[in-house]
Design a protein that fits this description.
Order of helices and strands: EEEEEEEEHEE
Strand content: over 45%
Largest sheet: 5 strands, mixed
Structural class: mainly beta
Helix content: under 10%
Number of strands: 10
Amino acid sequence: MSTKIKQGDAYSLPVALTLNGSALSGESVETAEFCLGRSLRKLYPQEVTFSADDGCFYIPLSQEETFALPPEAAPLDARVKFPDGQVMGAKAPGYIQVVCALSREEL
């Protein structure tokens, strides 16, 4: 099942990260960079939060940010920096399906 978001929605996008088949937690990484589409970039722990309850990082998306995403499969990429200084790409869902909104008004 792929993740879908609609243009104009504002919420936190849950993302579970793995590296070499093992789940990553907020406690195991120093920082993380999440890139969605061609221009949206969010950083953990500055903007992105982690929930130990479900093991997901939560990327906040504003209504303005989701309106700016084109209606297509937007690539989602993640890179993490560990406390020992190693920087590695982590496995994220890959693509997020962005659904076109008929209304272009912000609420």
